[in-house]
Amino acid sequence: MTTTDQQPAPTAEERARFEEVWARPRGWRRALTSVQHKSVGTRYMVTAFVFFFVGGLQALLMRVQLAQPEQQVLSAQTYNELFTMHGTTMMFLFAVPFLEGLAAYLLPLMLGARDMPFARYNTFNYWCYLLAGIILYSSFLVGMVPDAGWFAYVPLSGPEFADKAMDIWLFGLALAELAAIGAAIEMIVVVLGMRAPGMSLDRMPIFAWTMLCVAGMIILAFVPLLVGSLLLELDRNVGTSFFETDRGGDPLLWQHLFWIFGHPEVYVMFLPGAAIISHVIPVHSRHRLVGYPFVVAAVVVTAIMSLGLWVHHMYTTGLPPVTLSFFTAASMSISVASGVQVVAWLATLWSGRPRLTVPMLFSLGFLFTFVAGGITGVMVASAPFDAQVHDTYFVVAHFHYVLIGGMLFPVLAGLFHWWPKFTGRMPSPRLGKVSFWLAFVGFHLTFFPMHLTGMWGMPRRVFTYDAGLGVGLLNLLSTIGAFVFATGLVLAAITLVGALRRGERSGPNPWGADTLEWAADSPPSAPNFARIPVVGSRAPLWDPPPDDPELDRMAAAFDHAPQNVRATPFTTVLSARPGTAAVQASPSIWPLLAAGGLALAAVGLLVESGWVVGLSVLLIVAGLVVWELQNERELGAGEAKEPVGGEYLVEAPGPRSPGWWGATMAAVVLVVAVSTVAFSMLFLQVNAPVWPDGATLGTPWLSAGTGLALLVAIAASWWGSRQGPLEHDATPVARTAHLAAGATTATAGTVALALAVAQWPAGGLDHTAHAYDSGVLMLVGTLALATVLGLGITVSALVARLTHTRDVRPRIMLQNAAVLWTGVLVVWAVAWVATDLLPTVVV
Amino acid sequence: MAAPGPARRRSPALALVGVLLPPVAWLCALGLSYLVQDFACTAYASAGHSPPATVIGAVVVGLDVVLLALAVSAGIMAWRVHRQARDTEPSSPLGFLGLLGLLLSVGFGAGIVLVAVNPLVLEVCA
Ligand code: HEM
Ligand SMILES: [Cu+2]
To answer: Looking at chain A from residue 441 to 500, which residues have their Cβ under 8 Å from any Cβ of chain B?
Structure first.
């Protein structure tokens, strides 16, 4: 290949060193220390599928019990436990984590990057998720299985009615949510900053657009659930009263918080499913996706509107009709947006030359099922009909149509589509087709009859039914269907796993597809692309490469390079013009230590042992500290060399390096969290029959002092981040300035923490007395937590200063600290508004 | 390539506003309609007064109209960005962002209309 630049082609020795830097760990180390996105993505997907089969087994047990009227195969209690664990497993341990894993695997490949932006954090999230699953399932071992349903309505899940099983559920849930929020941050940064040179926003694969939107939804929707589970945990164990009516709480608050998460959750599952279809249909019809801008617009509209739709799950809770009608209106708009996507797929099929491959079959199965589910969805979205079928099997049928049609079929399409990429082998088309037909027919046989049993009045979540209801035959059909469906799914799994050994070799691009992942080897090499591809269109493998010397220069600079540290190009947000080099993490066990510490903390709280909790805190802190030291060492190695290719800096301040994005996203998460608490308090205040008259925290001096200390922290870190030269070869001059700035920030932060915490005893409130007091405790706690995070990043900045000789890295870290401290200041402001302003201005 | 003129340097910001404003307007329309209506009616009810339904309804519809105007003007602006980019630099993503902004303005604008008709046809504090 001839290029116009002076970059010589890499020598054999350079190639070897490049391979060395990217080499995968071997043996047991591979399982525990690998942080590369493909290995993490694979672990996510495999773990999720294990949970899927466990959840499926529970479903089959339920179907056996329901096969005939008045059976006693399972007791009522066991049935309750099974549907709770089935719903929880499918939603929290299968669907969302699987899609996170798929995104972790595919996004860097599709975008032309070498790894996820914060690969160790990515791994940390996986460990959190795995441990969450283990905690949830340990409930079977200790014989305390959650049974309050997957949405755990209060008061059923509150202190009076639920035993420790509920605590297990809440801790497992919290850990899984934490993992999902982390995965969302990863996805946002990789999509915005790590696209191949030339892949401007309008050339981005639909999957990347979708995961960007989905990540935004996760941050806005999962944080409220995390807050909600904390509130419930506090109510259960510390005696606060967020959900207890006598003391100013309200069980409806839980429903709101749950469905603010729960409704978008459905779209968090459906949108990636639809995105898979938007890749499978064009490739297997040999035609570009028709109406790309419309599909992107539809995805954005669906993502945002889904955030406003939670109330429709509460139609029967006595909200006024106008309130409900607002949300019905929004449901209608969202179905139009989904319709736009369906039209785009049909138009693509129509204009192309479709091949009936296995991925295509699953896509068509998806289209059929999803449209059917959409229709029943419109029915359920109308409040009067919902009142009729609410809590009957009609609803069970509807949401399985949407979840299985909208998520499981696309996932299977995607697995058969990308399997050759993952493994280098083709799954057998014959077995694949048989498994599709079994799954498709089995699915409809299982769930179509449930519409009828529902309309004839069979309630959901009841372990048996009366023979007189006349739904015995339909239920028998459902049970038979469930077994046919399960056979199809097991056969699909056998087909895929069997292909690992016996499948034909596929080569890099067996389907003749258009996106960048198909330019990599099958399976992809550790760095994905030894030479980074450049992009000039939406279908980079179908169109000739762009003629743009600036892009080629970047590709050449990263050709088997750099060789002393893992790195990938970092490009601009809008146009993906060449920017800097982002260093990527090497294998590490410390994320496992930190995640293990978190899980241990949960265990300690469950068994109520102070020792275990103390030990877990030690583990977490130790894990994070060594982790940070390793980061800095690696970045030092990156900076020790000239800029990559003589041109691309290893990190630069502001949005030109991943850290700034990470700090910004962390700040956003904190603000969403505190806003959730503030809104919860406002909700309670408006709805509570008794609210302490004009109650305020009433510690103006402490509060103002906290704010002032936070301002000092922002100013000091910001000032420090502007000291010293940025140029790579400049002599460092700002060591003292950085140390002074870091120390000032840390001191101010510590003062802020002390003052914030002192507000609680000084205010003289009793968190068990009233929901207002409980809310204040929660707000003070949130502020304290945010401040601790700010202190953490400040200490990291100091560590960076002590471990680096150049000025660049400490500057960047101080800037990240300033960004996060700004977030903490907003948290402080929101907390003050909720504790002192709202109680006096709202009637 | 000529040096970027002031108009060209401004258009990424305009395109971004064109994309972000319609969703924000819709979220505000839904959120505020709900908050104003629900909180006002509940507050009056728990204070034992009968709520001034027409006033509340008018406030809600008024808010929605303002937000609709915002969403529509964002769409017009985005369309302008789209046209300009298409004529002057067809390979830049601004043309696409402009089109996206226009589509979002249509989608979310329709969403706002659907929200705003409710207080007109239903009893506000029933
Ligand atoms: C493998 C085929 C499946 C079968 C046969 C099946 C069957 C069932 C049954 C019998 C129930 C209990 C209904 C009741 O008594 O209320 C149920 C509930 C549920 N299923 Fe499935 N299901 C399957 C797959 C899935 C999948 C793939 C998901 C999600 C991705 C899912 C999500 C749920 C949820 C959220 C509930 C509600 C649990 C609750 O009421 O708390 N299911 N399913
Ligand atoms: Cu919903």
So the answer is: none
The secondary structure of A261-276, three-state, reads: HHHHHHHHHHHHHHHH
Flag whether residue B34 sits within 8 Å of chain A, measured between CB atoms: yes
**DSSP alpha helices (H): ranges in chain B?**
6-34, 40-46, 53-88, 94-121
Q: Whose C-alpha lies nearest to ligand 1, atom 4?
A: A59
Q: How many CB atoms are closer than 10 A to CB A701?
A: 10
Listed by start position, the domains of chain A span 273-506, 529-582, 652-841
CA angle (A753 as vertex; A749, A756 as ends), nearest 5: 130
How confident is the model over A650-675, as pLDDT tens digits?
Answer: 888 889 989 999 999 999 999 999 99
Q: pLDDT per residue over A200-229, tens digit each?
A: 999 999 999 999 999 999 999 999 999 999
B37 contact A CB<8A: yes
pLDDT of residue B6: 47
The phi and psi torsions of A155 (rounded to 5 degrees) equal: -85, -5
* Closest C-alpha residue for ligand 1 atom 36: A87
Phi-psi region of A348 (alpha: psi -120 to 50; beta: other; left: phi over 0): alpha
DSSP A512-531: ---SGGGGS-SSPPTTS-SS
Partner B contacted by A307 (CB < 8 A): yes
**B114 and A329: CB-CB below 8 Å?**
yes
Query: Is A652-841 CATH 3.90.1150.10?
Result: no
- Model pTM score: 0.95
Residue A316: the pLDDT is 58
Of all protein residues, the one whose alpha carbon is nearest to atom 43 of ligand 1 is A59
Q: If pLDDT is split at 50, 70 and 90, which confidence band does A751 have?
A: very high
Size of interface A-B (CB pairs under 8 A): 105
Asked whether the beta carbons of A717 and A812 are under 8 A apart, the reply is no
Which of B39, B92, B122 is the closest to A322 by Cβ?
A: B122
Q: Check if A322 contacts B (Cβ < 8 Å).
A: yes
Q: Does A841 touch chain B (CB under 8 A)?
A: no
Backbone φ, ψ for residue A458 (5° rounding): -80, 120
Partnered with residue A650 across adjacent β-strands are A581
The topology under which CATH files domain A273-506 is Cytochrome C Oxidase; Chain A (1.20.210)
pLDDT number for residue A318:
63
Contacts A333 to B, Cβ<8 Å: 107, 110-111, 114
Place of tokens 């460990």: A127
pLDDT of B8 > 80? The answer is no
Chain A residues near residue B126 by CB distance under 8 angstroms: 320-322
> CB A322 to CB B117 under 8 A?
no
For residue A728 the two structure tokens come to 């790579």
What is the three-class DSSP state of A251? helix
Per-residue pLDDT, A842: 72
CB A139 within 8 A of CB A169: yes
Q: Is the CB of A776 under 6 A from ligand 1?
A: no
- CB of A122 closer than 8 Å to CB of A37: yes
Instruction: Supply the ipTM of this predicted assembly.
Output: 0.90
Residues of B in contact with A298 (CB under 8 A): 107
Backbone angles phi, psi at A162, to 5 degrees: -110, 140
Which helix (H) or strand (E) segment holds residue A123: the answer is helix A119-141
Q: Please, which pLDDT band fits residue A416 given cuts at 50, 70 and 90?
A: very high
pLDDT band, very low/low/confident/very high, at A151 (cuts 50, 70, 90): confident
Verify whether the Cβ–Cβ distance A574 to B12 is below 8 Å.
yes
Cβ of A150 less than 6 Å from ligand 1: yes
Q: What percent of chain A has pLDDT over 90?
A: 74
Q: Which residue has the higher pLDDT, A379 or A800?
A: A800
| Domain layout of chain B by residue ranges | 13-121
pLDDT score, position A119: 95
Q: What is the mean pLDDT of residues A524-553?
A: 94
Tell me if B122 and A843 make a contact (CB, 8 A cut-off): no
